[in-house]
Design a protein that fits this description.
membrane; transmembrane; transmembrane helix; 6 helices; 2 strands; two-stranded antiparallel ribbon; Sodium/glucose cotransporter 4
């Protein structure tokens, strides 16, 4: 969000001020700040600075916040994606120091516009006109094992997809280089 805000600020500064045409004797009406930030810094160099600023903010926030306990990260990071252990949900700490489960608001208590938005986005549990197929009840351990097993990919298809990805990248690079 910091990167977006800084990028939008430069965008607004660049397009809100007009520059006199090249060779014109008209004075430049822009302030010195806008002349330096927008006029003298190429947009690609600005994007490098913006990348560094965004990275610094992300690392700073990461170091300043408390890490999530490891037992709540199973299958949430790249390194634990195949872990079959049961993941404990991230819980909220209440003011008295006890943990409380984060509960979602029931559909019936949501405002009408939010229920319709949930239906359109496909995040609602059910809608008035639709019936759900019966769900097979699995234990938490079975759900965790099924989630870890979902990522298994047969070696043939893994190789097939990787080869096609390399072909697509090579073809795209050739076309970009040929027509650039």
């Amino acid at each position: 969000m910091i990167g977006l805000a800084i990028g939008l600020l430069r965008f607004i500064l660049e397009f809100s001020h007009t520059i006199p045409p090249c060779g014109s004797s008209d004075p430049d009406p822009r302030s010195d700040f806008v002349k330096v930030i927008v006029g003298q810094v190429h947009y690609l160099h600005f994007s490098c600075f913006l990348f560094l600023i965004t990275g610094a903010v992300a690392v700073s926030f990461s170091l300043l916040t408390e890490p999530i306990p490891e037992d709540r990260l199973y299958r949430l990071t790249f390194w634990t994606r195949r872990d079959p252990r049961v993941r404990r949900p991230v819980q909220e700490i209440v003011s008295n120091g006890t943990e409380q489960m984060h509960m979602e608001t029931p559909q019936s208590e949501l405002p009408a516009w939010r229920r319709y938005l949930n239906i359109v986005c496909g995040t609602s549990g059910s809608s008035a006109g639709l019936t759900e197929a019966p769900q097979l009840q699995l234990s938490e351990e079975e759900k965790a094992e099924a989630a870890a097993a979902f990522l298994d990919e047969p070696p043939y298809w893994r190789k097939f997809l990787n080869v096609n990805a390399v072909i697509c990248l090579a073809l795209t690079t050739f076309i970009w280089g040929f027509y650039a």
